[in-house]
Every structure is written in structure tokens, then in C-alpha cells.
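Case 344 in the screening queue. Each case pairs one protein sequence with one candidate compound; here the compound is KG4. For every case the pipeline is the same: read the inputs, emit a complex structure as C-alpha cells, and attach any notable structural observations.

Predict complex for case 344.
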Amino acid sequence: MKMDVNILGIETSCDETAAAVVCNGTEVLSNIISSQIELHQKYGGVVPEIASRAHIEKIYPIIEQAIEQSGLDSSGVDAIAVANQPGLTVALIVGITAAKTLALVWQKPLIAINHIHAHLQSAMMGTKDLQLPTVALVVSGGHTSLYECKNILELQLLGSTIDDAAGEAFDKVASILNLPYPGGPSIEKAARGGNPAAIDFPRTMLAKDSLDFSFSGIKTAVLYYCHGQDMKGENHTDKMSRKEIASIAASFQAAVVDVLVKKTEMAADKVGAKTILLGGGVAANTILRNELEKMAQQTDRKLLVAPKRYCTDNAVMVASLAYYKYKAGLFADMTLEAKAASDD
Ligand code: KG4
Ligand code: ZN
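Case 344 output:
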């Protein structure tokens, strides 16, 4: 008889305190997220110390709610999984400490999860026949990377950003345009009705075959556009009409999406990919989803995208990926540490 495997996932890598229980990698029994957006909003970005303190306050109530909502008790949980990299170390450490404590007290195995791999798991969840080889694009606030996904647990990095992540560019451009944090959803909303061809913002492709990204140039281009080339002028956004803001936002969004889609196609060509995976916070962006879908259809590939609710940080993706590590016997021990950068 097949036994169910219920895993408690914990996620505290940035500004969401999250816990979830997932059965057999696919059946979501609970999903609790406490967002800190309001705490960071006035700073226009995540302040690590504030994030850490908020995680400490929230982590146990959130875990308790996740267990309660799942209908299980601690004896029904088979393992504790936690994102231990990459992210803000002062934030990651809160989730890791909670996970270690529960693993010790409940006598359950501990599983370490790479947050980026987990973002891709959100796109793969529930897919029965993943056609290999597969190319995966992760676009979040901290990362913009292309991988060859050899199987659920094996990713090989093909390229990543050499400066800003795509989400970071959305957040910074939103701040230039006086739009609220987080910038991605604000820009997407502001761009509605704007002309995406109004301003020809740069599409940085780097060297001919490069699969790396660079988004600092476009951020500066938007800054110059709003302040004037000499940067001596004031930020004119206050005096701009909604339509003008909409066109800047739409043109910026179109340029970023263009680069992401072109590089993903290059990566897919390089590895002969039949499937493309898309995950991470920026994957919630409708224009990006639509343009990647168009490219996939034109090149006879299948696009798998995380449902919007699982694009931004959550613990379902952590608990889901952990199932495959559990099956493979890949457990962590009490020496598990937080790592700011990803191992791969
Ligand atoms: O994956 P995530 O929740 O956290 C990190 O791992 O970084 O991603 C957050 C990022 C933020 O930069 C946010 O502005 C961006 O994802 N984002 C979006 C959208 N929703 C969130 N970017 C573009 N369009 C969106 N709809
Ligand atoms: Zn993330």
C-alpha cells in the first residue's frame, strides 16, 4: 500500500513568512503566508533587520496555522523542509532555526531546499510527463537565471544577471515613477493602456551568445528619461499625466520582457528544449507569461508556468520540492546553515 508523505515547508528567505503542508508533492493541505509588504513599503525595498524581526514574531503562529489548516497533527507530518538559500541570511536563519527545532522536538527528518529550485517546482507541480530536456527561467526580486533542468532535482546554470535582477529593476523603476512597492505589480497596473512602443528603452543582450542578463542599463535609461540626460533636472514624474506614466511603464515592461523571452529562446535552442519552465515573482507578470507562451507556440515547445498565486514567495513550493528529496533520501542535519548565495 502506498503511504502518503506529508511535508511541512517553511519559507523565510525575504519578506514573506510562510508555512505549508503538502501531501505527496502535489496536494496542498495548507498554505499560510504573512507578507511584510506594509513594513517595508515606506523604505521602497526590503530592510533585512526589519524582515528578520518580523519573521521571528510570525514564524511559530504561521507554522501552527499551517498545521491546523492541514487537518494533521505533528505525528502526521513526515518531514520538515526549509529554504536555506539563497536569500537574506538574517531572514533565512529564522526559518532554519524553527525547522531544526521542530525536527528535533518531533523527531522528524530535516530537508534543505534551494529557494530558486522551489520557484521552478511551482511551475512543475502536478505535471506528470515533463518532457526533457527543459529550459527554466527564474525571474524574481533577487534572481534572473536560466537553467537546464535535467530532472526535478538537477539544475545546471546556463546564465544569470550580472547586475540587477529583473524584479529589482521593476522595483527601482517603480520607485523612480513614484509607484508603490513592490514595483512589479505597480508597474504592470500602471502600464495598462500605455503604449509599449512609445519609448525605445535599451534591450541589453551582452555578447552574441551570452545567456547572461543585465538590467542596470534600462533602469538608468528610465532615470535619465524622467530627470533629463544631465540628471540636473528634477524628477518630472509628478508633473506627468497618467498616460505618460503608463507609456513609460509599458515601454520599460516591454523591453524587459523582450530580453527575457529572447534569451530564453536562445537557451532553449542551445539545449534543444521541448519544454520551458517559468517561475519566480516576476512570472506573475501577464505580459511576460503571454509573450513566452507566444514564443513557445511559435517554436513548438510547451510552456509550464506557475499559477499566479504560487509565483511570489510561498512555502507550498518548498514542501512540494522536498517530497522528491524525501523520496531520494536527501536529508540535512543540524549543521544546516543559511547561505546568501545559491550553491548553483
Ligand atoms: O519571488 P519573489 O516573491 O521574491 C524573491 O525571491 O525575490 O519575487 C518578488 C519580485 C519583486 O521584485 C516584485 O516586484 C516582482 O517579483 N513581481 C512582479 C510582479 N509581481 C511580483 N514583477 C513584474 N510583474 C508582476 N506582476
Ligand atoms: Zn522568491
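Case 344 observations:
- The pocket of KG4 (ligand 1) is lined by residues 14, 140-142, 167, 170-171, 182-185, 188, 280-282, 284-285, 312-313 (CB under 6 Å).
- The domain at 130-307 is CATH 3.30.420.40 (Nucleotidyltransferase; domain 5).
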